[in-house]
């Protein structure tokens, strides 16, 4: 029988016959090889294990092996779910630098359960994870709602209002229908969503349905929803979706309810002011709630104006107080702002408050800020944040102040350097020049144009940028002969630093929601 097995010789030592891992069962096929009993385990195995038991184990392990072979490669070095070296022969592997070849797949090693044999697969991008959890009605609406001849109405989704509110398409459907629904339809939908109102307020789609009830619901429905919010206003105000509901509620509930909800913020008002969502709620309160109910906001701000004005979200609240506060409130805030104006003008967020004072403040406050800016005009004009304030000074200053600014920028200093040349080459200063060209009129503008032209031609020969094109348009030099002749010789001009290639002016760097409501 041994002569029937033909195996190629291999250049590696093999253990003694007595230690062989395999014994011949029957036949000439390699499948006839089954593991021999391990001599060190003879005492622990029952003697009744016969040929049929071994054959059964061999077949079961052979069926499990393909599943185990699907394990990721980082766990196993072979395509099979077990180590290359049997447990009793691990010491043999130390004598060789190469790996042993994989064992035969019918070696009876216990494999992992097949359901754990594959690494988890991430669902595809377009796969809907909520499919299978939706009701048949919502599934049908999502598939056929806008395509079939059937026209869905609110009565068609009765007893499914909460589910529809939490779905992107269902929420949009309810919002549209509530605008024209009769009182009975609104009442039915409201009864369904009322027990889950707080959860829907925090939901990415459900919050819009709650907002619609504050807009189109009855006064009783609005009152019930406002009662649901009591005791939770702080948490709702700092939540990304619920903060929109709080703002909408403040727009439509009665003053008594406004005051009750607003008072809940008092213990943590500074936290809410500095929150990326909560600051919108505080802004809305300042705009809508009568002043006698928000003394606590002014008390919290007092003595904190400078740190709040230089905060990413606090600066917005300071601006709203300057717009809607009493005269006494404004005077108190401005007193703190003037004391730190030098810091705020050059601050990343404080410069917006300085701009707000120049644009909307009292004449005496505007005058003080502009005077401070003109005292260090060249330095501030080349500053990333302060240059925005300089532009506001040009735009909202008096004609005499604009003339003074022009004279400072065109008069050579003690060192003989022309400030205009420095400004045009600077990545922020060139915006100040553009603003000045846009605001000056008549002979004064013509005088500035004549001062700029020589510097502009030198600049254009070496630099091509959006800022150069903007200056060219403001100067009215597009397509002129002088422009073409100036471009004919570029070798005689020393190289100058390039202007910024940013797509937007620094004045567009304000916080995106500074004048916009968070209601979406």
Task: Describe this protein with a few key phrases.
Leucine-rich Repeat Variant; extended; Pumilio homology domain family member 3; RNA-binding; ARM-like; cytoplasm; mainly alpha; 28 helices; about 525 residues; disordered C terminus; disordered N terminus; about 0% strand; mRNA 3'-UTR binding
Can you offer a commentary on this structure?
The chain is built from 28 helices and two strands. Strand 1 and strand 2 (33-35) form a beta hairpin. Among the domains are: 2-116, no CATH class; 375-520, Alpha Horseshoe (Leucine-rich Repeat Variant), CATH 1.25.10. It has helices at residues 51-68, 136-144, 161-165, 168-178, 183-193, 197-201, 206-216, 219-229, 233-237, 242-252, 255-263, 269-273, 278-288, 295-301, 305-309, 314-324, 327-339, 341-345, 350-360, 363-374, 377-381, 386-396, 399-410, 419-425, 429-439, 442-462, 466-475, 481-486; strands at residues 22-24, 33-35. The chain is extended.
In short:
By secondary structure, the chain is mainly α.
State the helicity in percent bands: 40-55%
CATH architecture of the domain at 375-520: Alpha Horseshoe
**What is the residue-averaged pLDDT?**
78
Q: Report the radius of gyration as a whole number of Å.
A: 39 Å
Enumerate the strands of the largest sheet in spatial order, edge to edge or round the barrel. 1-2
Order of helices and strands: EEHHHHHHHHHHHHHHHHHHHHHHHHHHHH
CATH class of the domain at 375-520: Mainly Alpha
Low-confidence stretches: 1-5, 13-34, 39-44, 65-69, 73-83, 116-122, 480-520
Number of strands: 2
**What does the main sheet amount to?**
2 strands, antiparallel
- Relative strand content: under 5%
Instruction: Supply the number of helical segments.
Output: 28
Q: Which structural category do the helix and sheet elements fall into?
A: mainly alpha
CATH topology of the domain at 375-520: Leucine-rich Repeat Variant
Can you say what the CATH homologous superfamily of the domain at 375-520 is? Answer: Leucine-rich Repeat Variant
Q: Between the first and last Cα atoms, what is the distance in angstroms?
A: 84 Å
Shape: extended
